[in-house]
Amino acid sequence: MAELWQGSVVFFGASSLDDVHAFYHGCLELPLYKDQGLCRIYEVPGGGMLGFCSHLAVQYEEKSPIITLLTDDVDGLYERVLEYGYRPETEPKVYSKFNIYHFFLKDPSGYTVEIQTFLD
């Protein structure tokens, strides 16, 4: 029997697909899975995909959705983000309530991105 599910894609509006590509593919090194012209879909190694579309509105009110990417090298990603000229909102830190080590930054469309590792 074939698997029922083959994966997932969460889509977001994008103000500039070129800026999104520079951030997610260039800086964060997520592989480009598919370029559909109006949408670009990036693989997240370990599972799932993120899609960004120029024909969808960038929508969030007071609090942006959080795109959390998991890594064992939070500090290395923090340095990489700085090297690419992005300005994280926080430095990497332990958040004991959830037993994680993480930092936050905004992507080119203003969405919150969290780079994190679980400590347990």
Strand percent estimate: 25-35%
Number of helices: 2
- Low-confidence segments, ≥5 residues, pLDDT <50? none
Based on the coordinates given, report the CATH architecture.
Answer: Roll
Mean pLDDT: 92
What is the 3D form?
A: globular
Strand ordering within the main sheet: 1-4-3-2
* CATH fold group: 2,3-Dihydroxybiphenyl 1,2-Dioxygenase, domain 1
The major beta sheet can be summarized as: 4 strands, mixed
Please write the CATH class name.
Alpha Beta
Radius of gyration: 15 Å
**Which series of helices and strands comes N to C?**
EHEEEEHEEE
| Whole-number tally of structural domains | 1
Give the oligomeric state of the chains in this entry, treating copies of one chain as homo and distinct chains as hetero. Answer: single chain
Structural class: alpha/beta
Core attributes:
alpha/beta; 2 helices; 4-stranded mixed beta sheet; 2,3-Dihydroxybiphenyl 1,2-Dioxygenase, domain 1; 120 residues
What would you say this structure looks like, in words?
This protein has helices at 17-27, 74-83, and strands spanning 9-13, 32-35, 39-43, 49-53, 66-70, 93-95, 100-106, 112-118. By secondary structure, it is of the alpha/beta class. It has one domain (9-118): 2,3-Dihydroxybiphenyl 1,2-Dioxygenase, domain 1. The model has no long low-confidence stretch (mean pLDDT 92).
Write the layout of secondary structure elements.
Blueprint: E1 9-13, H1 17-27, E2 32-35, E3 39-43, E4 49-53, E5 66-70, H2 74-83, E6 93-95, E7 100-106, E8 112-118
Parallel strand pairs: 1-4, 5-8
Antiparallel strand pairs: 2-3, 3-4, 6-7, 7-8
